[in-house]
Prior knowledge:
By secondary structure, the chain is of the alpha/beta class. 22% of the residues lie in helices and 35% in strands.
Amino acid sequence: xxxxxxxxxxxxxxxxxxxxxxxxxxxxxxxxxxxxxxxxxxxxxxxxxxxxxxxxxxxxxxxxxxxxxxxxxxxxxxxxxxxxxxxxxxxxxxxxxxxxxxxxxxxxxxxxxxxxxxxxxxxxxxxxxxxxx
Length: 133
């Protein structure tokens, strides 16, 4: 047995804003539905990791125990790889221009280099360059 795909599922308060933000960062849309219940993006060079963003009504209906509020708590942080220190800095500029909140500025971390941000809904990510990775 093996895992072929990974999907992350988040809540979005405004699907159009979410779609605009991740499109501005250059991520590829994974959905072709216009039903207003979700948008979906591929993260990485392959289609093996996908993040879906659902309306609260759509995702909340399927969750037992409620949903987290990412702007006031920490749920999870996805780390996205970069190929160089310069690329991390380029991502930071792109995130800021797209309206993301950089809550940890680009900086050296051990032998790597990173920065962290949240999207308009407060979902957290970081870009990381790690030599040899």
